[in-house]
Write a structure and sequence with these properties.
The protein is an alpha/beta fold and 338 residues long. The protein folds into two domains: 108 residues; 149 residues, Rossmann fold, CATH 3.40.50.1010. It is built from 13 helices and six strands. Strands 3-4-2-1-5-6 form a six-stranded mixed sheet.
């Protein structure tokens, strides 16, 4: 009979004398603690609808952590720094429109704002993968503005308020992007390593591997996508050795992370930390799991930079990663389990 996920994993030999947090599983950690990020992600669309019902421009409630981390995935080849520069420029332009109403005809004020929206859509489309980022330029008030004339009551405040609301929205978007940067910020001399499911199922356990030596770096941040956790969960129900290893990996992850936020780094061993890469709200996964994982790695590269490696022992994954211009870390055969 397979050991349940609610039992603590044996610590590696090098760590058995000091196993910090070993009482966490006794406090009620189970498979549910591994799936917490998945449940929150599934609940997000309903939360977003609730946010919209609270009114245009209302800030999210403090408890809506995942709304704050709205989908800020960037298009391939776009860096977070370049996106932040563009958002800063767009905010400045919208602020100038809001402040420039005095002394000009209402129709001209209107047209300046409409021209800004056209420019903003082109830029936001080129930067962000999620269409909602640019679609939110077209609010109900925007369509009223298109009909604005000199006979419209109080035309200047109407344009001013819409422009200022868009400035605030872009500020929030930039803040979410900066939060993503901070979540995955790496110390100098560090690299991020994204292990695929093959690594967990066929190699020595992740906390027994000397990752900095393999990566040729001072420190390594293991970034585990939610897809890998889901695949490990499916494998853990199988009776073969791969299923037992998958279950052991999940137990180790649950024990190690405890109640930490999914994207908060935790210490694994000397020179190695670990965090999860949660799917953004409303994310639709690709049909092929390898393509999905590599797409998420590309999202990570956009935030972290080029210091990202895909760790795998699967030659097909290696070929797919290299075809996308991603760097790979192939695990040596001596780490493979029989």
């Amino acid at each position: 009979m397979r050991v349940g996920l609610d039992q603590a994993p044996p610590a590696p030999v090098a760590q058995r004398k000091q196993a910090p947090g070993s009482d966490r599983l006794a406090q009620g950690l189970s498979r549910r603690s591994i799936a917490v990020a998945h449940r929150q992600d599934q609940a997000t669309p309903g939360k977003l609808r609730a946010l919209q019902r609270r009114g245009v421009g209302d800030p999210p409630a403090p408890c809506d952590h995942w709304i704050e981390m709205e989908d800020v995935r960037l298009r391939l080849g776009i860096t977070a720094d370049s996106a932040l520069d563009s958002l800063r420029s767009l905010r400045l332009q919208a602020g100038n429109v809001a402040a420039g109403g005095g002394g000009i005809a209402p129709e001209r004020h209107r047209d300046e704002y409409l021209a800004w929206v056209e420019t903003a859509e082109v830029q936001l489309r080129s930067l962000f993968a999620a269409p909602d980022v640019w679609r939110k330029l077209y609010t109900d008030r925007y369509w009223h503005l298109r009909e604005l004339t000199s006979d419209t009551p109080r035309p200047y405040p109407l344009v001013d308020m819409e422009a200022r609301w868009q400035v605030t929205r872009l500020e929030r978007l930039a803040e979410r992007l900066r939060q993503a940067q901070q979540f995955f910020e790496l110390p100098a001399g560090s690299v991020a390593v994204v292990p695929d499911t093959n690594v967990f199922a066929h190699y020595r356990r992740f906390d027994e591997i000397r990752w900095p030596e393999l990566a040729g770096a001072k420190q390594v941040r293991l970034v585990v996508p939610l897809l890998v956790l889901d695949e490990l969960d499916k494998l853990s129900y199988k009776s073969r050795s791969g299923g037992e290893r998958a279950a052991g990996a999940l137990r180790a992850l649950a024990w190690l992370r405890g109640d930490s936020l999914p994207e908060a780094p935790v210490h694994v061993r000397e020179g190695t930390t670990l965090q999860f890469l949660v799917d953004p709200p409303g994310h639709q996964r690709r049909a092929n799991s390898d393509d999905e994982l590599l797409t998420r790695v590309e999202d990570l590269v956009a935030v972290v930079g080029e210091e990202v490696r895909v760790a795998t022992g699967d030659y097909g994954m290696h070929v797919r990663a290299r075809a996308r211009g991603l760097r790979c870390l192939t695990l040596p055969e001596e780490l493979r389990l029989p």
